Amino acid sequence: MKKIVYYILSVAVMAFTASSCDKLLDSSSPSAFDAATVYANYSLTEGTIYGITEAFCEVNSYRGRFLPWYGHNTDIEWYNTYKPGDGKSDISAYDCQPNNSQLNLSTGPFPLMYMGIERANLVIEGIRAYGNPETRPEMAYLLGEALTLRAMIYYDLTKAWGDVPARFTSLTSDSIYAPKDSRDVIYKQILADLEEAIPYLPYPGQDAATSRTDRVNKVFAEGLYARIALMASGYAIRPEDGAVGTGDLGTVRLSSDPDLQKEVLYSKALAYLKDAYGKASLEPDYETYWYNQNNMNNLTAGSNYETLYVIPFGAGRGRWNFTYAIASEGASISNGVSRGGDAGPLPTVYFMYDEGDQRRDVTCVNYKWLKDNSLEPAGIGKWYFGKYRFEWMDAQPYTGGNDDGIKPVVMRYSDILLMAAEIENELNGPAEAKKYLEEVRARACGADAAAAYVAGLGTKDAFFNAVAKERALEFCGEFLRKADLIRWNKLKTSLDAAKADMKALRDLSGAYATLSGDIAYSLSEDGLSMDIKFLATGEKAPAGYELSAGYVNKYDDAKKTGFYADRIDGIYVSDPVQHMFWPIFLDTMTNSQGIIKNDYGYDNLQ
Q1: Where are the alpha helices (DSSP H) in 521-599?
Q2: Which of 76, 345, 346, 576 could form a disulfide with 572 if both were Cys (CB 3.0 to 4.6 A apart)?
Q3: What band does 26 get if pLDDT is binned at 50, 70 and 90?
Q4: How far apart are CA 356 and CA 100, in angstroms?
């Protein structure tokens, strides 16, 4: 099938570029797979959709460079290893330079994401030319799917790089080299594309395609519209109008485009979110949701399911648990190979949750698997995302390679609810917004506690702050936070607050002054998890628990071990505001013949 897809796409490329590329393909030449044949046939056109998503799976695309690296460090997530000057640490610590060893690749995420866009452009043009989507609903669905996938890729490009080239038609010899465009041009086009696409798409579970979460459905597209609207109308560093690609340092500001203001976009986004409301649902138990995710039991879509869209990695593709699962060297867990643990929650995130919030112990794990298959506390400075676990995967032990086949979640229904809460509050205050927040909190803390909580949120500011915190608690480890902090203009202030909070925890001061520094820990009955309790001063370990005295204080600034000061300060080493976006990398600039240039103070050396 993969070879067929490549062949179909190759023929389509030639067909659509023939007229402007010296007639590389004579229109009279015989071919069983010319563009008219491909895009008039549903099955062949569906194959070209798979060609778009295949671009996600390339070695250094979403699979190995974008998903493992975009999104940390924030006020809730960070890279678990601090090595100044190391290419991986530099990406996380806002010191990613154009020659970064991990991302400055000819096959890196930037060119491979544009490969996906080019394939989407060809599909969109082909269906419009030959698929008759006006009269064929099945072809209209594929057009809507291609438009949505292109919008998703552009959303990811702009959240990582800011301003990038806007390519909405297939390449010709005259358009191979293109400079960066204002991201506003891209935002307006992909929002318009989604407005076109949404009516073409069925709700989750309404047909065979939308009964799977690795295919696009209406609720995902509606949620994507809201995500883009929030980002487009929010804050970010921007070059001066007309100065994109000139080396402009930029300033943090809102867009000056009248079409991208909150008063224009929010009402449209809220209408889509209200339409999406009730078309999916929350899994009642948070741990069960993530257990199913690790079993890859997240492919079913419908009104009774939470997952809206996943990256469609195959069984031998993707490095999600390899990167983010609880760290393991256990023979019966990860086949004795060191895997997982590259990033995790900040040590302070555990204490953000209310006691009894079922998300806390799923999200924040402070133990690791040893080679002898035993568990031990990991140390106060290194936590793991309990949402991702090799021990929850079907095959035990996990014997696969670096690619574990986990299909990362792009959007869950809880994001529909929390975006609706945020936008409704901004437009109309908290009265009608409370039901959305309450639904998310009720799963986490129980219906009565959730009702009491939202009842106390009487002002627009108080409600916004509650939603901002809820997004941290709900989505920690899903890497939505960086884009949230940027659009709220809270990136550096939140990182600075997180640093101060971590230092208070390390020193047992401030909000942590009542802690003794000791922990008690106990293995679960099934031996697959560990319960850890932070003991107050004078509190004894409960029966059946072992004591680890001075657990919080086991660090050494001089020897740079544990939860040391430089590690905490290293959450950013360059100004995160100036470097909220990645640079365009040297290889890309060189291959653009110098036409694509950096802004925001990054080098443009060739």
Answers
A1: 565-569, 586-591
A2: 576
A3: very low
A4: 43
Nearest alpha-carbon partner for 339 in 350, 329, 331: 329
What's 392's DSSP letter?
G
- Residues in Cβ contact with 447 at an 8 Å cutoff, skipping those fewer than 6 apart: none
C-beta pairs of 138-141 under 8 Å, 24+ apart in sequence? 138/42, 139/42, 139/45, 140/200, 141/200, 141/201, 141/202, 141/207, 141/209
Paired strand residues for 376: 368
Task: Kindly write down the DSSP assignment for every residue of 269-333, as one continuous string.
Answer: HHHHHHHHTTSS---S-HHHHHHHHHTT---B-STT--EEEE----TT---HHHHHSPPB--HHH
Instruction: Write the single-letter amino acid at 254.
Output: L
The one-character DSSP state at 17 is: H
Place of tokens 């072809």: 139
3-state secondary structure of 141: helix
Considering only CA atoms, which of 222, 213, 156, 157 is closest in space to residue 191?
222
Q: What is the number of alpha carbons within 13 Å of residue 221 lying toward its C-beta?
A: 30
pLDDT digits (tens, 9 = 90+) for 184-209: 999 999 999 999 999 999 999 999 99
CA distances from 521 to 330, 355, 367, 496 (A): 19, 17, 10, 31
Dig out the tokens for 233 from the structure: 């109308």
How does pLDDT run across 331-365, given as a tens digit for each residue?
889 888 999 999 999 999 999 999 999 999 999 99
- Compute CA distances 84 → 94, 557, 589, whole Å: 11, 15, 26
Helix (H, G, I), strand (E, B) or coil at 459: coil
Identify residue 327 by its one-letter amino acid code.
Answer: A
Tokens representing 392? 């929850």
Question: 115 is written with which tokens?
Answer: 């490969």
d(CA 318, CA 310): 12
**Cα distance between residue 513 and residue 462, in whole Å:** 26
How far apart CA 138 and CA 523 sit, in angstroms, is 53
